[in-house]
Amino acid sequence: MSERRQLTLGVDRSLPISIAGLIDMLRYARKTTVDAVLGLTPRQLSHRHDAASNSIGALLWHIAAVEWWYQINTFDRRDWSEDEQAKWEAGLDLIPDTQEHPLEHYLDALATVRTRTERELALRDEGWLLAVEPFDDVDSNNYWKWFHVCEDEINHRGQIRWLRKRLPAE
Predict the structure, then answer these.
(1) Is residue 63 part of a domain?
(2) Whole-model pTM?
(3) Model confidence pLDDT, tens digit, residues 114-145
(4) To the nearest 10°, the Cα dihedral for 136, 142, 144, 148?
(5) Which pLDDT tens digit goes with each residue over 72-127?
(6) CA-based Rg of the chain, rounded to a whole angstrom?
(7) Short-list 63, 57, 50, 60, CA closest to 100
(8) Count of domains forming the chain
(9) How far apart are alpha carbons 119 and 48 in whole angstroms?
């Protein structure tokens, strides 16, 4: 008999429940994103359904770039450097890449960014998570910012699944 899978949030009692729950949500979103792209070739990752569509690779790079941007905004409390901007801006703005990259290129970026996110979140408390401060032209807290990282990934995962179903035969 197989062991039942558990779908739970916030059960790591070594962390504040809201931090543990947020990490669990981010992990589940990432697992399902990775599951949605397993087995894709560089050609499939760079394919654009039409001129108005993003490629799956561009969406994966965007997911990593958004998470990275919120790291520097919430953990480092700074703007990006010129080098960081050169690396990530195209992903953040969903500018199509002209090169084909293997799936590992995207998965490595996603894993590297996520490792820091989880490490940093585990160091935070609810005061940090709930503190409200100016954010562009609104007031926001870090909880909302990290919720946005999660919901942005889930939104783009839906696009990835849609695009994958429409990939031309290899």
Answers:
(1) yes
(2) 0.95
(3) 999 999 999 999 999 999 999 999 999 999 99
(4) 80
(5) 999 999 999 999 999 999 999 999 888 999 999 999 999 999 999 999 999 999 99
(6) 17
(7) 57
(8) 1
(9) 35
Sign of CA dihedral 149, 150, 153, 158: negative
Identify the CA nearest to 30 among candidates 97, 100, 109.
109
What's 157's domain CATH number? 1.20.120.450
Instruction: Tell me the angle at which helices 17-37 and 142-165 cross, rounded to the nearest 10 degrees.
Output: 20
pLDDT score of 41 more than 80: yes
Is there a contact between 100 and 45 (Cβ–Cβ < 8 Å)? yes
Please report whether residue 44 resides in a domain: no
Q: Whole-angstrom Cα distance, residue 45 to residue 62?
A: 13
Decide: residue 169, CB within 10 A, 0-12 exposed, 13-18 middle, 19+ buried.
exposed
Q: What is the span of the domain harbouring residue 70? A: 55-165
Q: How many CB atoms lie within 10 A of CB 161?
A: 15
Cα–Cα distance, 158 to 155 (Å, whole number): 5
pLDDT at residue 1, as a whole number = 66
